[in-house]
Amino acid sequence: MGHMRSNNTFVYVCRYHVVFCPKYRRTVLTPPIDERLKIILAEQIERWGQELIEMEVMPDHVHLLVGCAPQFGIHRLVKALKGY
Hints:
The chain has helices at residues 33-47, 74-83, and strands at residues 5-6, 11-12, 15-20, 51-57, 62-67. It is of the alpha+beta class. It has a single domain (14-83), classed as Alpha-Beta Plaits. It has a three-stranded antiparallel beta sheet, with helices on one face. The radius of gyration is 14 Å and the shape is elongated. The model has no long low-confidence stretch (mean pLDDT 92).
């Protein structure tokens, strides 16, 4: 199946495809801003103890493929990433 993770009571594989964009989908994520954004997002995902599988920053949106524990909740991770 893939890389399974486990807790004391269950085994899970949770992968989420998250897409977000700047207000009005403006093309502001251009070099060197995109490289800095990649570093910041990777650091924050690692800080929260989740798994970054893949990331792509386009000029007007960001694609993230993350592995997130079900008890942590993807909503908390996205809120932390966008808030930071």
